[in-house]
Structures are given as C-alpha cells and as structure tokens.
Amino acid sequence: MCCPGCQAVAQVIADGGLENYYKHRTSEAPSPDSISASEQLQAEFELYNHASVQKHFVAELEDGTRQATLVIEGITCAACVWLLEHHISSLEGVIVASVNLTNHRARVQWDEQKIHLSDIFVAMHSIGYQGHPYHPDKEEQLLEQETKLAMRRLGIAGVFTMQIMMLAVALYTGAGTSLETDNENFIRWASLALATPVVFYASRPFFQAALRDLRTRHLTMDLPVSIAIGGAYVASIWATVTASGEVYYDSVSMFTFFLLIGRFLEMKARHRTGKAGNALLNLLPASAILYTDEGEKIVAANDLQQGNRILVKPGHTIPADGVIIKGSSSIDESALTGEYLPLTKREGDRVVGGTINVENPIDLEVTQVGASSQLSSIVRLLERAHEEKPKVARLADAVSGYFVTAVLIVATSVGLAWWQINPDHAFWVTLSVLVVTCPCALSLATPTALTAATGTLRQHGLLITRGHVLESLARATHIVFDKTGTLTEGNLSLQSTSPLAELTARECLEIAASLEAHSEHPIAKAFHHISQLTQVSAAEQLKNHVGQGLEGYIDGKRYFIGKPHFASQFCDTQLEFADAPDSQGQWLLLASEAEPLAWFGLNDPARKQAASMVQQLQKMGLEVQMLTGDSSAAVEHIARQLKINTVVSGVSPEQKLQHIQQLQDNGAQLVMVGDGINDIPVLAGAETSIAMGSATDLAKTNADAVLISSELMRLPQALRLAKRTRANIRQNLGWAILYNLIALPLAAAGMIAPWMAAIGMSASSLVVVGNALRLTKLDRSDRLE
Q1: Which of 115, 385, 418, 489 would be a feasible disulfide site paired with 464, CB 3.0-4.6 Å?
Q2: Distance between CA atoms of 218 and 24, rounded to whole angstroms?
Q3: Active-site option among 222, 321, 397, 482
Q4: Is 0.85 topped by the overall pTM?
Q5: Residues 476, 670 contacting (CB under 8 angstroms)
C-alpha cells in the first residue's frame, strides 16, 4: 500500500465484503479537486476510528477508556519525546500519552466520548510527526525503510567526503606556496559541487528537525547542528565566490558523515531493542484451522473470533488464547516464560496464543483475540515499563532540554570573544563548540540502559511493567514473600501412604482415587493422577460431608476418607489414637466399616528453587521474610526448610498491608512477592511488588512486575541485573558529563577542529550505547543451567 490511509480503506472494504466492487470498474474513479490536502489527510485518519480497523491494535480498558500503541516517525532525540508527550497530553480527552525514545513507540490512552483516535493522529501530524498503528509487520517495514534511507544518506556523505578530503589535501599543502590561483579556485568550486549533495540530501534530517523546532518553539540539538552545517556551508560559498578567506567543505562533509555514522549505529541499537517486543507478537502464526459446518477450513489467524472452535496439530503454533475442549498435549511456553520443559495441558486448561503444541492434536475454543490476547497484554505492560521513567531519566531529559539553550549561549559568547582575539579563527572555533557539546550522550545514557535491562529480564521470565522497578530493586533491603503459591507450589500433593491393615499401599490408593475421582476439592486433586495411571472401579452412592470428607460404595463395600475423627467413627475397630501421625502437613484417614485402612500424608511442598533463592538473597544482604495468612504447622515447617528467620503468620490482608507499611515507614526499601487475591492490597501498597505468573489477573494488574516463569532464581538474577543497570547508568551519565566538561574548554580554546568535534560527539554517544548494550547479556554466574 502507498500509505496507511489506503491500507485502512482496503481493510474496511474487505471487512465489509465489498471487495468484488473493483471487478466491475471500467476506469479510475475521479478525484474531486475541491478537497484540500488537509481535508484528505483528515479523511484518511478518520478511517482509524472504525471498529474493524481498531480491533487489531486498540484495547478497551476496564474503565471504558481505550489504549493503543503507535509507532512514531520523525523522532530524533529526547526533546522530540518531550514535545510529543506534552502536545498530545494537552488534548482534551487524552488521559495518558507517553513516548519511548528507544523504540519510537507511543502509548496513548483516551476517552472516546471526548476525542477520537483520528484527532490524535492529526495532532501529531500538525507538529511534524507521522504516527502509525503499532504492529510488528508494519514496524518491521518502517524499520527497514528507515535503515535503507539512513544507509543511502550515509553512503552519499561517505563517498563525497572522501573526494572532498582528497581535494582538501591539495589546499592544505599548497596554499600560499606552489598552488596557482586558478587551480585553487578550481578545487574550491569542485569541493562546492561535491559538498552540495552532502548538505542538501545527507544533512536533510537535521534541517527538517531544526525547522520543526523553530515552529514549535522547543529547542533540540538538531538546531545547533543545523546552524553549524549551514553556517559553514554558506561561509564557504562566500569564500569561493569572492576567492578570499577559508573554505570549510571538508569540515562540513566530515562532520555530517561522522554524525550520520553515530546516529546510524544508535538506530541499529534501537532497532535491536525494539525487536524484542516485536518478537512476542510475531510468535502468532499467520493461519489457523477453523471448524465450520463444512468441516475444517484454513483461515487467517487475524479473522478468528471469540467462541470459534479450532484445531491445533502437533508442532503447530497456537493462534489465539483459548481453552482446550478436546484432547491433551504438552505445550512449549518457553518463548513466554523461559522454561524449556513443555507443560502438560488437558481438557479445561487454558493455553496462550504464540505457544507451541508439542505432542497431540487438540481442539480449542477461542477466548481472546487481537488486542485482548495475553501476548498483546504482555507487550502493553512491557511498553508501559519502557515509557514510565524513573527519577534519573526524568532528570536527564530535563537537563538535556536546557542544555541546548546553554550551548547556543556559550557558542555565541565564544564566537564574540574570538572575534576580538583573532577574527580569522572565530568562525571555526564557534563551529567546533556547537558540534562538540551535543547532549546526545546525556539523553541516551538512561533510556538505553533501562530498555536493554528490561528486555533481558523479559527474555528470562521476569516481565517488568513499571518504570521504577529496576531503580527500586537496585536499592532493596527487604524482600517479603507470601507462602502459598509463592514459596510453595500452591497445590496439595500426596507425600506418603501408611497402610494400617492387610491391604497394600497400592490398593489403598486405588480406593481413595475412586472416592475422590469426581470431586474438585483441592485435596481430591492430589489423588486424580492415580485414576489416570490405572483403571479404578467407579465409586457409587457418593456422599459429601462438608468440611469432613467423603463416603461411597466400591464393589458393594462402604468406605470413608477424610478427617481422622470423621473416617474412624464408623469403624467397628477403633484406632488407639484418632489424630494424625506426628509429622508436618495434612493427614487423611481411609477407613471401611470394619477398620481403618491407611493414613495419607498431604503437603504443599516448597518450590524446587526456593531454598537456593533464599540463600542467595540473604548472601546479597537482604532480609527475607514470610508473610502469610496460614496459621498451620506447615508455616514453621516451610520456614525451617528454607531457613527464613522472620515469619508473620495467620494475618489478614489488612494486617499484611499494615506490616508492609510499618517496615517502609521505618526506612525499609521493600519488595513484596505474592500471587493471590488476598495479596492485592499488599502488592498495591508495597514500594515494589512482584506477582507470580500463576497469580490472579487482579494480582498481576496491581503488581510492578510479573514472574512469568515459576523459577524463583529469576529474582536474585533481577536484583543483580538491577544493580548492574544502576551502575551502568551512573557510568553513562558520568561519561557524558565528563566528556562535555573536557571537550567544551578545548573547543572554546581553539584546540579542536570541527571534524574532530564531530568524531568526539559521535564517539561519546556510541560509548554510551555500547556500554548499555552490555546489559543485554546476563553475567556468567546468573545464567541458569
């Protein structure tokens, strides 16, 4: 398509079933000349208001507002981000407008009753930026176009710079001696011809951005860069025409070339980090197998609707979120959770679009598609984390905004001073000051580090959804865990079987499995795996005694299972003791009408990595606490097993929140980890909160980060990476400030030529970006085997 508007029109026509219209056309439709260009643009943008167009990239939130992620063309520095955020936020009806400098994406939330999406696109266009709906395929196209254009500009600047430098060597070595005047003038005119494409084509983005800055009355670094390039070029033309003075064609072209190299490498780093989010949505396949009245039909995955029934064959990627309604299989969720082992899924289990069906064919009922899917939700949470800036990032943005004004004032002052000292050198010294003091490194210092670290953690199973998390984790002093479902598996499992009569343990288990086969009680689920492994007789005349246990008949015999007092009261032979054995966990008694048959020991075991995780956190100097509503003996058992010294048990959600607030009031930098609905108040009240991937949706919404995988060792990893990120940001800011403190006096003293200033400015930005990209790799000690 030639533009997003035409693409949207085509989509609306196709969705409306009108694509056959074009088969009957005999000529092109006339274009009304009366419509102005602005009205045409408005009409194109209004197509984005159609529900059929919005369903793929707009999500409706619980409060009735809408949210979309957009890709913005034309962003060059942190000042552009500031301008876009303030301009869009000022529109009536816009609730949130945040722009990510690293990947050039914007997250916009608005009230549809007050403003339409088309109005937001028009507002962006009015200040010189072009917005598009975010979709991986669309963004990949834009990134490819941006890369090709940047390489073309860079190639022209590089080729012509080499030619100009060869001519400049003759000017430098022969000026005032052996070089004849005619030859000197010829070289100057030839240099002018070679420098013109560099200035008017390769440097065009700088001049466009500078004009936009002047129109919006908000300065960015493109303005002094444009002044430097344009001023040197005009001065050189004057010197060429009048055959007097010095020419700066070599400095102009070399400055442009090195500046473009720096921005090109920054762009490639930005593309690399931006592809992390794209890779998530690109997990979804292009097609799906849909069950219809005529049988199986291959359709586009984007055409699936909620309630559709689809077939997913072994080895195929699941095209949408859904529930298994037939079959069972292993599902590879490694792309989302980082866990390399597939998970077993059966009828009634939920699966996520983008994961891979490994073993058997399964039938799904689609539950969520498009912007409502879990993958889209993860991407939105990731975008929110990128866009929410910690204090150090906001400070850097504010400083870089004022820095441009300071640069212009300093350059003017230096130029006036040199005009008094040595007028011949005034111009190129001023040029060097304008170039060398570009605050690009200062602007890039924080966002590149934060984006790289956030992407790394997501790839390893920890999804950061708030911008302050890395900063808070780096200075954490306390980490508080809920017990059930966080430190433990959250499911009761059968730990031991102790027969009390002539029956074997296997026979006792089969009787228990028959009684519990049709119950959905958490205790009953501990026996369900037995009925799946062996063929057990079905229990009859089942009767549920609420809070006590079950009774039923198997092969004409009456059996009981449940609490010891309940199960033993019907026996002819009574136990000498009716209580459970002296051990941790929960004990059930199986009995017949004649005698007790067996004890079953149940327990909610600690997660496999819990002990080593707690040990590592304590080695890092953090105080580890357990905060739980459970008051059973299992609490102390888990605490001793994991070597947690501080335990607060038997507390309500309100008391949990009070405990957290008291710790924070006493100066603790606290991280809370939980999973249940009862943890929502404390997750919302903690300075930093992490929800388990198995947590309820409400818990994950109120948390600052989500542990998508269940590997608790990701938490020590995250804390160490957060500290590395903090150190990385400090290194970047320190380098950016030190560079300017050293380079500015040298440039003002006339010791740095303009081309040297261009190299220095580009190198400072590349040092910052390269240092931040080190965070895309975990330390060797943090890589899980």
Answers
A1: 385
A2: 52
A3: 482
A4: no
A5: yes
